[in-house]
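chain below, 510 aa
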Amino acid sequence: MAKKKKVQDALFARLKRDLAAGSAEEAERKASLLRSRLFQQQLDFLNDPSRKKTLLCPRRAGKTYALTTLLVTTCLTRPRANCVYITMTRGTAQSLIWEELKHLDTELELGINFHNTNLVATFPRGGSIKLTGAETAHDVDKLRGKPYDVVVLDESKSFPPDIIDELVKQVIEPALHDRAGTLIMAGTPGAILAGVFYEATREGSAITRPWRSREGWERPFTWSGHSWNTSDNQAMPHIWQGFLADKEANRWHDDDPIWRREYLGQWVADDSGFVFRYNDERNSWLPELSEGNPFGLPDGHEWRFVLGVDLGFNDDTDIEVAAYSETCDTMYHVYSFAQPGLVVSEIARELRKAEQIFGQFDAMIGDRGGLGRTIIESLNAEYGFDIQPAEKQEKRDHIELCNSDLMAGRIKVLRGSHLERQMKYAQWDERGKDIDKGFPDHAIDAFVYLWRHCFHHYTRQVVEAPKRGTEAYYAWAEAQEEARLAEQYERNAETDWWERDNLEEVWNDD
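prediction:
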């Protein structure tokens, strides 16, 4: 009975809280409280009435908190507001603001209902914030056709130029007119000086009016540009002091690309920031399929296939397949699959599908870190696979070795695949040891796993026999037989030596 009353009390307390949170006056009061926590540059960003805004900041400048506040205050003050927060991957979106939303809900009793699987936060007045990724064309298509109040593209530098251009111009912009919605492109600068985010935030952009120059601005503009530095983050002033200490410790000068890009928030081209030395002309390929050559691989070789799998749930489970031959010094990427939200049976189905296409694999390699070990053990035990553990140590060293193959043209990647996209645009984080978390790397991981099991480096020359029945053929066959007999003689001599030594040991023991 006491337990039942406890449940009832909790339910009534929740209803009371939801009713209070759902009143317009209370919602506006809490929205005002959230705004009062912002420093001036953040507040200017929120109050800017422009419907297309950019936000360019370095790390730890308070960008994400400003974006979260904008989304929450919109849902508090606008009934049935439809807001979406988009990063390159769904997992990145979740890691950036999901826990902050829960913290604000608990602290201010906002009455938010959290759907942890779909990553949707629903407010008492009907507004919602959905977190999602836009890594593939399928992800982008799911965003079409819905009217939005606020759309935030965060970590915008991580989007390949073609994807962010399509997102902005073909998907999001048409969906804003129903509700007179607002589009935000936000992020830190990167090393790729291309795409709509770069064009809208670069110094001297012809399509953007900087907020600081708004007074007296007469030229037409598309975007209202906001930016501030970490030194402006009054809530955490110690961070800027830490940045200055980093600069001194690393002996960065004022024009150092890392200092300018990662700490000051300025666009700087820097090839050293890219993870892979990928080149379209050298490393991209499109197979020419035929009835006798279903994979389009070069003729005259016996091809073997290796599979790599990187497991995920919120992020993609990624399967990559490559082909190599003992008589060809180039490996060819031939298959790519990626999809989030797969359970073990669905992963097994996709692996079996790959087996049906390519036959028995030379090796299957998967990530056994974290829950990956349990999943792979289940796949091996219940479905009969033989997935070997991936070697994850010294990842950067192996990527650099992979880069040697890329620069030598010994790796060909399917043109248009998400593996190609990831290899072209992935960048190192500020430490230069790991791939920046804003860039998806599931296909990269699966590919590096399998690359280490391909032996295209150890090629042997293909020996073509002369035409049978010719004088040259008989001379060639005689030489082959002599070589075989010589190899057998050496092998027998080694065996006789081993047996003689072992017999002497037996005699001596006796």
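The CA atoms of residues 123 and 309 lie 38 Å apart. The chain has three domains: 2-242, 280-458, 467-510.
thats it, cya
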